[in-house]
Amino acid sequence: xxxxxxxxxxxxxxxxxxxxxxxxxxxxxxxxxxxxxxxxxxxxxxxxxxxxxxxxxxxxxxxxxxxxxxxxxxxxxxxxxxxxxxxxxxxxxxxxxxxxxxxxxxxxxxxxxxxxxxxxxxxxxxxxxxxxxxxxxxxxxxxxxxxxxxxxxxxxxxxxxxxxxxxxxxxxxxxxxxxxxxxxxxxxxxxxxxxxxxxxxxxxxxxxxxxxxxx
Length: 215
Prior knowledge:
Blueprint: E1 4-8, H1 12-25, E2 30-34, H2 37-47, E3 51-54, H3 68-81, E4 86-91, H4 101-106, E5 111-115, H5 120-131, E6 135-136, H6 149-160, H7 165-172, H8 176-189, H9 200-210
Helix pairs in contact: 2-3, 6-8, 7-8
């Protein structure tokens, strides 16, 4: 259940256009808003929300210039301090995220990216994915299929050894949450996302075989 959401954007019109649909989607949630990085950090540290929806381009403080470097610094702060925080980047230009790719891959919470050109429905779908702990990053900030050794081990144990997530967690000596996080990161790398009527694990196995990651 989403109890508290922090929305960060320096544009009041965008802020209002984001808060309304989120309130409808999550009627029980308290929604906090910030228009600069300093205020966002203060609210996040005092309230520790379940979900952050943020732009990349923003000022450091009230009246300052909106810069992607400021947004990236805020994002790095949030991912470092709150490792399981669910995050949605709502930006017109996601390319600066390339600079944080290793940190994004290591983050344990849901992490999705939404272009401001997308419809409200598409935005809410990506928000829901993040709340579920899933990952989605645009293809343009990825270079080919990049997978980590631990993700490959999960693939092998799941599809070649037929182990459950709990058994995989026991074997790898990590938590089940960590195993689910590995799945989500791997699915993003393989561009496998939830589709109605399709089993995402089956689709992951199929895509992994196509890429030669498992036999």
